[in-house]
């Protein structure tokens, strides 16, 4: 099994932590970087190879990970000379990728079974499988419904339930057909194109532990919880 880890972003929302370090290498707990945790998890799940798409401060990632042998993985790299979006880096890699593979962000902290996501993707026949997570969004305002300049309904500080993308995907190589290598391609653009052609992605619903380390408060929470979650996140690794 093969995985592609997207690690080329600048981590702007996580500054100042990412001023000198790429976001996937910010430390979690006393001993581990996020990317190390991910690589250990992939190896424990049975993945044997991995491509890391690097850009901003990418040479630091390359120096840290090396060839991946310390985690039992065969790691190679793809370099972004300019930002290509979430899915754009895959277009330049297409000839090196197997028919189905896992794609994930390099800053995800979760106990998701990555191998099962890929197995379910292969079995679904879908062009894309999206790992999803239930999130409740609290609105801090009274919400009005208006019609013809009249208020017809009112809800005080409602909560709304959504399923959100976890930043982990199963992908078939053929799904990338028709897109131009070297041009940006976002996850949103790919999904909207699939929906437009009635080629719906498959949803992999997950209700375990998940944090997207995108903002300082998420990062602080991850560090606060890691000691008690370590055996869950690194089981078998």
Quick take:
The protein has six helices and 13 strands.
Q: How does this structure look, described?
A:
The protein is of the alpha/beta class. The chain has one domain (2-133, 163-234): Spore Coat Polysaccharide Biosynthesis Protein SpsA, Chain A. Helices cover 27% and strands 32% of the residues. The chain is built from 6 helices and 13 strands. The chain has a 7-stranded mixed β-sheet. Strands 2-3 form a two-stranded antiparallel ribbon. The longest helix is centred in the C-terminal third of the chain and has 18 residues, at 216-233.
The Cα radius of gyration reads 19 Å
Q: Classify the fold: give the CATH topology.
A: Spore Coat Polysaccharide Biosynthesis Protein SpsA, Chain A
As laid out across the biggest beta sheet, the strand order is: 5-4-1-6-11-8-12
Identify the CATH class: Alpha Beta
Name the CATH superfamily assignment. Answer: Spore Coat Polysaccharide Biosynthesis Protein SpsA, Chain A
Beta-strand fraction estimate: 25-35%
Q: Using DSSP, what is the number of strands?
A: 13
The global form is globular
- CATH architectural category: Alpha-Beta Complex
Order of helices and strands: EEEHEHEHEEHEEEEHEEH
Largest sheet: 7 strands, mixed
Q: How far apart are the termini? A: 16 Å
Query: What's the total helix number?
Result: 6
Label the structural class. Answer: alpha/beta
**Helix percent band:** 25-40%
Mean pLDDT metric: 88
Low-confidence stretches: none
How many structurally independent domains?
1
InterPro entries: Mannose-1P_guanyltransferase (IPR050486), NTP_transferase_dom (IPR005835), Nucleotide-diphossugar_trans (IPR029044)
Protein name: Nucleoside-diphosphate-sugar pyrophosphorylase
Organism: Streptomyces variegatus
Pfam families: NTP_transferase
